[in-house]
Amino acid sequence: MLSKRKAPSRFPTFLFGLFFTLASAFAVSAVCQPLQPAASAQDGRAVPPLSLRSRIALPGVYGRMDHFGWDSKRAILLVTALGNNSVEIVDQWKRVGAITGLEHPQASQYLPGLDRLAVSSQSGKLRIYDAASYSLVKTLDFGTDADADNMRYDSATKLLYVGYGDGRHGAIAVIDAATMERVTEYGLGSHPESFQLGHDGSRIFVNLPDQEAFAVIDRNTGRVTKWPIAGNTNSHTLAFDEAGHRLFTAALQPGQLTVVDSDGGAIVAKLPCVLGVDDLWYDAARKRIYATGAGWIDVFEQREADHYAAIAAIAVGPGAGSTSLHLKSRTQDGLYLSWPNMLPQGGSEVLLYYVND
Q1: Which of 36, 161, 327, 335 has the fewest Cβ atoms nearer than 10 Å?
Q2: How far is CA 101 from CA 123, 127, 249, in A?
Q3: Burial class of 186 by CB neighbour count within 10 A (0 to 12, 13 to 18, 19+)
């Protein structure tokens, strides 16, 4: 005897859609929650290490973004839009202008005390602008396609340090920011990626992935020492905990955070990390490391001298996160994060996250 076929469900289609939407939203919300959220000191509620505060639209700005700068006098964010050949000026969370006509700019550095702005570019040119008017003051040329990249500024000596060059021509150039003239340089033998200035001494730490090493420059003697760092072949980052004597770097792929002793170069810890990290930040007040990569922000915390733990993995969205800037303003710590080519009407965004205790 044949059984009767069950009548089809009359459950309305739109209710299926509503159920699916709510389930998806719940799943995304769950993904965005920190792995081990910190507790609020005020009311005992769990809060994430970072909270999204604002989305800053950059309509018409396309392509990859690189190292941001910060005009501390005017509280202006300098968005180095490498793929757009511009530096976008962001004031009060809105785009108010741009410096255009650049050849793949890679970093923007405000020079306090001189009220100038330095912009490096892949073309090998370093341009110095008046920070009030954005008028060009001087251009220094490191050579055709010399790949002027990361910069650091020592406000006490008014010296600007610029990483540039490839292969045996890779070096850190030293610029007198007051006279805007080259003073000296330190040869490194390959392109310098991120580097950090020591403030309690004379050392500069430089990431040299092409040599699978870190370089340590003595600014007093000019001596360059190199530490082999096993596996450091595709990392472009370097952050520094000077008080704790620790350096941090993160590989593009596979995602990995590496902690190195800054006194001798020994590797003290390795942790899985988001892919594609191009900027890495150490938060001394909270003993945290922020790693911004391919669509995520990974947050790590120092628990003991050589014990670091992942405390949050915050989802942002596909294409977000490779370039960022961590800073402490008068009222709030913030983390700015790039999100290129994602506006529905065309263009990019910068996200501002507030840092929570």
Answers
A1: 36
A2: 12, 12, 32
A3: buried
Enter the pTM of the model. Answer: 0.87
Buried/exposed code over 202-214 (b: 16+ C-beta within 10 A; e: otherwise): ebbbbbbbbbbbb
Q: What number of H helices and E strands is found in the chain?
A: 1, 30
Distance from C-alpha of 316 to C-alpha of 24, rounded to nearest angstrom:
15
Overall average pLDDT of the 134-142 stretch: 98
Peptide bond into 254 cis (omega under 30): yes
Question: What's the mean pLDDT in 88-102?
Answer: 97
Going by the DSSP 8-state scheme, the letter that residue 212 receives in this structure is T
> Which amino acid, 194?
S
pLDDT for position 330: 75
What's the CA gap between 111 and 260, in Å, rounded?
A: 30
Please work out, in degrees rounded to the nearest 5, the angle formed at the alpha carbon of residue 218 by the alpha carbons of 281 and 125: 65
> What percent of the chain is predicted at pLDDT more than 90?
82
- The average pLDDT across 310-330 equals 91
- Measured over the CA atoms of residue 76, residue 286, residue 248 and residue 156, the dihedral's sign is positive
Please report which helix (H) or strand (E) contains residue 30, including its range: helix 13-32
Each as own residue / partner, the long-range contacts of residues 266-271 (CB below 8 Å, 24 or more positions apart, any chain) are 267/229, 267/230, 268/306, 269/306, 269/307, 269/308, 271/300, 271/308, 271/309, 271/310
Name the nearest CA neighbour of 170 among 159, 162, 181: 162
In the predicted model, what is the mean pLDDT of the chain?
Answer: 89
What is the rounded CA–CA span in Å between residue 129 and residue 110?
Answer: 10
**What's at 328, amino acid-wise?**
K
Of the candidates 41, 57, 30, 1, the residue with the CA atom closest to the CA atom of residue 343: 57
Percent of the chain at pLDDT exceeding 70: 87
d(CA 267, CA 198): 19
In whole angstroms, give the CA distance from residue 121 to residue 83.
Answer: 11
For residue 215, the tally of other CB atoms under 10 A from its CB is: 23
Alpha-carbon radius of gyration of the chain: 23
Q: β-pairing, 203-208 with 213-218?
A: antiparallel
